[in-house]
Design brief:
The protein has two domains: 161 residues, Rossmann fold; 125 residues, N-(1-d-carboxylethyl)-l-norvaline Dehydrogenase, domain 2. Helices cover 51% and strands 14% of the residues. It is built from 14 helices and nine strands. It has a six-stranded parallel sheet, with helices on both faces. Strands 7-8-9 form a three-stranded mixed sheet. Helix 4 runs parallel beside helix 6. It binds nicotinamide-adenine-dinucleotide (NAD). Nicotinamide-adenine-dinucleotide binds next to helix 4, helix 7 and helix 12.
């Protein structure tokens, strides 16, 4: 059975590695945080003493790291993946990072005879635990074909979005829509409150009308209408405001690089930035309703 090195066992990577174990894979885990490594070990991951120990002889490497700098360091650093992976090893980066980092690292991998895909995810911690993530995968067809059976143990939708970087492009575009939509839904409920319109009534009307969107019907930012939404549990994440801000900044940087005017994306990035500055960074991103609804 194929051996997989899994690097980055945090909120997302921990449960993903556990699902690979459940699917019968041998998983060697690496994380800078000993608590995360210990939690993964409880789920059957073999804790590796070093990145070298995890990667040497592995058939595939999966990474789930915070951002671009960690991805560059883990793959291309002096004692990184490239220094230890044997030719032909498949590399799957599931982190959300900028397209430029992804393409640079994938090109460096190709120079070393290593196939690499970017495979960022949508679905959050709940999706990681349940094995129901959506993967947006960028890379060569052949590498995608090799990654698919591994990702199938972790998600319910695996979409080949194009060449290297296309996974990150899909992710950043999707999350820009999400940030803008959440802000619009939160503004609408704040306005409804001031106009004396009942929240449930607005929900009933808009969820069956042209205001309908995921941020309203699945993840409603006010308590009540959608019992499973974070608003009903004090905005415990879920998907933090800090993560949303990171993705909106990636979208803004990509828009600037390519010369696209994303005015609504810029407004959303500003609003989630203010939310983080006001001590709400670790709340679920739907708590933007709380910030917007405060009296000015
Ligand atoms: P996290 O901070 O919980 O986990 C990251 C892990 O990487 C940590 O355990 C950290 O110790 C480890 N790490 C950092 N640098 C390392 C290194 N050099 N070597 C080994 N381990 C290292 O973050 P997360 O919530 O799991 O998110 C991971 C990625 O997934 C991010 O890119 C994020 O944008 C993306 N994402 C997160 C969510 C979510 O809901 N949390 C949803 C979709 C995508």
């Amino acid at each position: 059975m194929a051996t997989i090195a899994f690097i980055g066992l945090g909120n997302m990577g921990g449960p993903m590695a556990a699902n690979l174990v459940k699917a019968g894979r041998t998983v060697r885990g690496v994380d800078l945080n000993p608590d995360h490594l210990a939690r993964a070990a409880e789920a059957g991951v073999h804790p590796a003493a070093s990145l070298a120990e995890a990667v040497t002889g592995a058939d595939a490497v999966v990474t789930m790291l915070p951002a671009g700098p960690q991805v560059r360091a883990v793959y291309a650093g002096v004692a990184g993946v490239f220094a230890h992976a044997r030719a032909g090893t498949l590399l799957i980066d599931c982190s959300t990072v900028d397209v430029g980092t992804t393409r640079d690292v994938a090109a460096a991998a190709a120079d070393k005879g290593l196939a690499m895909v970017d495979a960022p995810v949508s679905g959050g911690v709940g999706g990681a635990q349940a094995g129901t993530l959506t993967f947006m995968v960028g890379g060569e067809q052949e590498a995608f074909g090799r990654a698919e059976p591994i990702l199938e143990a972790l998600g319910k939708r695996i979409v080949h979005t194009g060449a290297s970087g296309a996974g990150q492009a899909a992710k950043v575009c999707n999350n820009m829509m999400l940030g803008i939509q959440m802000m619009s839904v939160a503004e609408a409920f704040a306005l409804a409150d001031r106009l004396g319109l009942d929240r449930q009534t607005l929900f009933d009307v808009a969820s069956a009308a042209s205001g309908q969107c995921w941020s309203l019907t699945t993840y409603c930012p006010v308590p009540g209408p959608v019992p499973t939404s974070p608003a009903n549990r004090g905005y415990a994440p879920g998907f933090t405001a800090a993560m949303m801000l990171k993705d909106l900044k990636l979208a803004q940087a990509a828009a600037e690089e390519t010369g696209v005017e994303t005015a609504a994306g810029a407004l959303a990035a500003g609003a989630f930035g203010r939310m983080c500055d006001r001590g709400m960074a670790e709340l679920d991103f739907s708590a933007i309703f709380e910030m917007i609804s405060r009296k000015h």
